[in-house]
Design a protein that fits this description.
191 residues; Rossmann fold; five-stranded parallel beta sheet; 16% strand
Length: 191
C-alpha cells in the first residue's frame, strides 16, 4: 500500500447474477476484506418490516428509487461512508454499485479501484434462477429482462466502461477466483 495509506477500497459493479457476490466472498476469505454492499442500508430497513426471506429484488429497487428521489442520490453512500470510517485499515469491498454516483463515491477514496464483473444476460438469468437467493429470483427470462430495465440497473454497463478492471465471468468459480487474484496482484503492486 502507499505510504500512509491504510485502506484499499475495491468497488464491484456488475449486472444481476454476474458473479459479484462470489468475487466479494473470495476477497473476504482470501484477503480478509471487510464486505459492504450498497444494498445493506436498504435490506436493513426492509427487514424492520419484513422477514428476511421475504425481502425481494422488487422491494429493494422500489426502496432505493424512493429514498434517492426523496433525499438525494448520495444518501446511501453517506450511510456507507460512516461504516467505512469504522474500518482503520485493510481491504474494503463495496459490492453492488448501480449508478454513476456509486462509482463517484468509491473513486472519492484514495487507493480505490473498481472491478466490472460481467457475463451475458441468459447465463446470468440461469444462475439467478438456480440459486434462489431472493424471494423473487425464480422468474421467467422475460421477467428477468424487465428487471434489467429498472432504474437501478440501466447505468451498470456505462459504469463498466469507466472501471479499472473488467472481468469476464464466463468460466468456473475457480476461473473467477484466479482472475480476482491476478487483479489483486496488480492492485498490490500499485499500492
Amino acid at each position: 500500500m502507499q505510504k500512509g495509506t491504510k485502506k484499499i477500497i475495491i468497488g464491484l459493479v456488475g449486472e444481476m447474477g454476474s458473479g459479484k457476490d462470489t468475487a466479494a466472498d473470495y476477497l473476504e476469505n482470501k484477503y480478509g476484506a471487510h464486505l459492504f454492499r450498497f444494498s445493506d442500508p436498504l435490506r436493513e430497513a426492509l427487514e424492520v418490516f419484513l422477514p428476511k426471506e421475504e425481502v425481494g429484488r422488487e422491494d429493494m429497487i422500489w426502496l432505493s428509487n424512493n429514498i434517492r428521489r426523496k433525499y438525494k442520490n448520495g444518501v446511501i453512500s453517506d450511510s456507507l461512508r460512516r461504516k467505512f470510517d469504522r474500518v482503520n485499515e485493510g481491504i474494503i469491498v463495496l459490492n453492488g454499485m448501480r449508478i454513476k454516483e456509486d462509482f463517484e463515491f468509491v473513486k472519492s477514496f484514495p487507493n480505490s479501484h473498481v472491478i466490472y464483473v460481467t457475463l451475458d444476460s441468459k447465463a446470468r438469468w440461469e444462475r439467478i434462477y438456480d440459486r434462489g437467493e431472493k424471494s423473487d429470483d425464480a422468474v421467467s427470462f422475460e421477467k428477468f429482462q424487465e428487471y434489467e430495465k429498472a432504474e437501478t440497473e440501466v447505468q451498470i454497463p456505462e459504469i463498466g466502461k469507466k472501471t479499472d478492471f473488467r472481468l469476464e465471468n464466463n468460466g468456473s468459480k475457480d476461473d473467477l477466483r484466479l482472475k480476482i487474484s491476478e487483479i489483486m496482484g496488480q492492485i498490490r503492486n500499485e499500492a
